[in-house]
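Supplementary Note 3. Input sequence used for the single-chain structure prediction.
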Amino acid sequence: MSSIKILHAADLHLDSAFEGLPAGKAALRRSEQRELLTRLARLAQTEQVQLVLLAGDLLDSENSYYETGEELSRCLTGIGVPVFIAPGNHDYYSSRSPWARLKLPGNVHLFTEHAIRGMELPAMGIRVYGAAFNEKHSGPILRGFTAERKEGFKNLLVLHGEVDAREDSLYNPITEAELAASGMDYVALGHIHKAGGLRRAGTVWYSWPGCPEGRGFDETGEKTVSIVTLTDDGECSLETRSIAMRRYETLTVDVTGADALLAIHTQLPDESVRDVYRITLTGEVDEAPDMNRLRQNLGELFFELQLRDETRTHQSLWEKAGDDTLRGLFLKKLKRQYDEAPDDSSRREIEQAARWGLAALDNREEAVRHEDP
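The predicted structure, written as discrete structure tokens, is reproduced below.
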């Protein structure tokens, strides 16, 4: 075979809790996550790949839903080419894990041992190696391993782990020296949720695709899976493909001297209705932004919206401090705390307390919130 085309994915984390979303939307997101499997199978067919390597954490925990397992089995069957799965630290293999209960189709090979094992596919001229986590933590698996080379065969490895992690890493630390000595042509990795691009250790190509869809604001932007092509002359190429339904995005808007709503609209992209956004307001203002007004006017533009107010009020906030009134005495006390505050974070908290207090004194709705969780 002159070349082989591979679909490489990892870290789907099916049945995630989505704790940052309201309960109803979290349930919807879990349902939508299962559609990633259909999209993955469709991509394998569209790209006409010959092999699929899934490098762990397909499931988020051992408490996966029955329908998720059924959908997983159905979609793996529909892929129609050999699929190799190396369970990770979230979906580790044990006699009580979901993997032990699933009826996987014949085209799927699940690695179940905490040791590297291989399977030969003579018709394709490849040998695929892999290993599983058998508990939540794993020491080095690749250390000291070198695969035998066989004329006319390519060696592939699918594994969940961290490259060049600290030696005391609990998630299968792997060094570039170990990769270079592994005897592989390509190593398909998982665990790191940000795509690493195609890399090389000696003559060994390796990569991790990141997660195919974000689940929180630590996983923002476009997420992808990888299409990897290996040629007989030892060359390798990688292309990314998106199968995500939604994205997490953050946006910081300076509202100094501007209407907050208009300033946000000016910076928003054309399409955001399917995505989860966190918008943070910054800058100096005379009066705190009306977060309720913003929420009411912006809510329908997103699947879910979080608003944060990190603006700073002009010095006018304290101009009545010291007046012989209830307002003046209240502000005088807070102003003293503000002046003595040890850092900017403490000063922002005191400013926010002053805003809330003034709203209460003016019998205004307490709509100003430092963070909308």
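The mean pLDDT is 93. The two ends are 54 Å apart (CA to CA).
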